[in-house]
Design brief:
A five-stranded antiparallel β-sheet has the order 1-2-9-4-7, with no helix packed on it. A four-stranded antiparallel β-sheet has the order 3-8-5-6, with no helix packed on it. The protein is built from no helices and nine strands. Helices cover 0% and strands 55% of the residues.
Length: 96
């Protein structure tokens, strides 16, 4: 299990009846802590980076490319860690 004393910062930018848009800022060595998504969502990376994702299936490195979105179904439970020596910013769009 990944350990870190640094947490990411989530700032809600849009909240309406159809979507919730969050700005996720990951300082170097930050993590989300374990959480479950209650809605389908899309992630938009704002820079190239490699993150580490822990889930029930195990731990894996995930390579992100700036502007290349990915989609996940609701119900995903995981912890995401930024092992880079630079901050990573993601935009999360939750579909209501």
């Amino acid at each position: 299990m990944i350990k870190s004393d640094i947490d990411f910062v989530l700032t809600n930018q849009i909240e309406n009846t159809r979507t919730s848009v969050n700005h996720l800022f990951f300082p170097a060595d930050a993590q989300t802590r374990w959480h479950r998504h209650e809605r389908d969502y899309v992630i938009v990376p704002m820079e190239d980076a490699t993150l580490i994702m822990e889930s029930a299936e195990g731990t894996k490195e995930v390579s992100l490319k700036r502007g290349q979105c990915y989609y996940r179904d609701k119900g995903v439970e995981h912890n995401v860690h930024n092992p880079n020596n630079f901050a990573v910013t993601l935009i999360e769009v939750e579909i209501k």
